[in-house]
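Figure S7 source data.
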Amino acid sequence: MNEFWLEILITVPAAGIDLVCHEMTELGSTGITVEERPLDTFVIPDPDEGVPEILTLKVYFPPDLPEAGLAQRVAERLACLVPLVPGLEPVVPRLRRIGAEDWAENWKQHFGILRIGSRLVVRPTWEDFQPGPRDAVLTLDPGMAFGTGSHATTRLCLEALAEAYEACPGPQRVLDVGTGSGILAVAAALLGARQVLGCDIDQTACQVALDNARQNNVAQQIAVTLDPLESLPGKFDMVLANILAEENARLAAALVSHLAPGGVLILSGILQEKEQLVIDAFAGRGLAGPDIRRREEWSCLCYRKEA
Ligand SMILES: C[S@@+](CC[C@H](N)C(=O)[O-])C[C@H]1O[C@@H](n2cnc3c(N)ncnc32)[C@H](O)[C@@H]1O
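Tokens for the predicted S-adenosylmethionine complex:
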């Protein structure tokens, strides 16, 4: 692994982003980010949201590239683009070294041991933890799928799920729609579910969920499928869906039809401003609730199907 990277900041008119990225890649850059466009795989970009006219690119070069003259070469490439990109300024950018650990390790600081309710503990693989006698420890190495527990939507689901298992016995048959990393499915199995079915539209997520089930020794209780919710057989004592508000609303009939009488429905991934959209979609479907939990800008709605 490289010990450091070379980082250059360039301000670029929005219309010139593609051309500048192309030139920087030609110069040897192996990574570029746009500061004003943070990538959040969970929030669909708002098509009405205007893009700023001027954007800041952070361009990363590997250290084996000759450092001397790199900023000058970048300026020359920018100068070539000036006739094509009105407003582009071919200044010699400042170059700085950043430690590789900034990338590879720093994010781990934001993902530590998480205790949820009286028994559930989410532990990243690199953290040591001495469990108490009643602790259900979920060990997770975030793969290429959503769900570490640190996102508010997952956290809200985990809290609602853990609460459902405060009563004994907790839900025995569980359906996790949009299982992602499998974090909710694994949590349910560790807390006592006998049968958990996770489904996802993403094949990588299904694989990661299975890996996490194996890592936590609950693979026997968990099945994962790519099949769409509408085609899944069975009724469940708990249905979890950490998907977007619009998707929860679209799937309302199918989600409720998979609930056994008295079953618990936990809906997450709902921006607070979209709460009413989901409440309206689930009204008149024989459900009591919702109990609403909120964290940051997110809401989680919990219902119980009438027995
Ligand atoms: C926000 S992630 C949630 C992951 C995990 N359950 C958690 O709570 O952290 C949403 C997941 O739902 C999946 N998804 C979105 N729409 C879906 C649908 N209609 N059916 C099944 N999975 C869906 C996505 O592929 C993604 O893995």
